[in-house]
Amino acid sequence: MIGGAERIDVKSAVIGEHPQVIIAPPDHPLAKQRSISPREIAKQTILMREVGSGTRLLAERFLAQHGIEPRIGMEIGSNETIKQAVMAGLGIAFISAHTIAAEIDDGRLAILDVAGLPEIRQWFVVHPATKRMMPAASSLRDFLVAEGRRFLPNLKHGRRGGKTPAARGNHSAKRK
Predict the structure, then answer these.
(1) How does pLDDT run across 144-169, given as a tens digit for each residue?
(2) Widest CA span of the chain, in angstroms?
(3) How far is the CA of 40 from the CAs of 33, 52, 71, 93, 123, in angstroms?
(4) Preceding omega of 25 cis (within 30 degrees of 0)
(5) CA 25 to mean position of chain CA atoms
């Protein structure tokens, strides 16, 4: 559809939590601090996703809630480039925690302990409500709902396989 997204009825079920965090190089002055005030973030150069991305919208909302006008150093269109730029010391960034598990494990990035974060979104499996699913697709959906969270990184322990409270149950919902 030209000019906007078409609205369709969908059925959805939660796969697991999708935390959004702020990252910095491990030697950044804020990396060892706890309960960092969001006001401290205002003093930092922030590397942002492109206009229109969901991550950017979350970052802008978080910053606005705290009255922060970000100092945007760069707008970057990919998570991999953002990670590399943060590792190079070009700034800090708001990013999906699931994209940084390997870099956290390896000590190449640090998650900043910012008050009010992580911002928790949800991963969903979605299909059109008006379409009957084929048996293979239905089996895949059931597997993702039951087991998908096991494949999400667990950043509390720095490895895969953790369970989060919201991801333990089957939370089906009808979305529009």
Answers:
(1) 999 999 999 886 633 233 333 233 23
(2) 54
(3) 11, 25, 12, 13, 30
(4) no
(5) 18
pLDDT for the residue 158: 35
Q: Please, what CATH class does the domain formed by 18-120 belong to? A: alpha beta
CA 152 to CA 166: how far, in whole Å? 13
DSSP single-letter state for residue 116: T
Strands 92-96 and 45-49 turn out to be parallel
Q: Within its chain, how far is the Cα of 24 from the centroid?
A: 15
* 3-state class (DSSP) for residue 148: helix
Domain locations in the chain? 10-15+122-175, 18-120
pTM of the model: 0.80
Query: Which of 25-39, 59-73, 148-162 has the weakest average pLDDT?
Result: 148-162
Compute how many other C-beta atoms are within 10 angstroms of the C-beta atom of residue 156.
8
* SS3 per-residue string spanning 27-62: CCCCCCCCCECHHHHCCCEEEEECCCCHHHHHHHHH
C-alpha angle with apex 107: 103 to 110, nearest 5 degrees?
A: 80
For 73, phi then psi, to 5°, come to: -85, -40
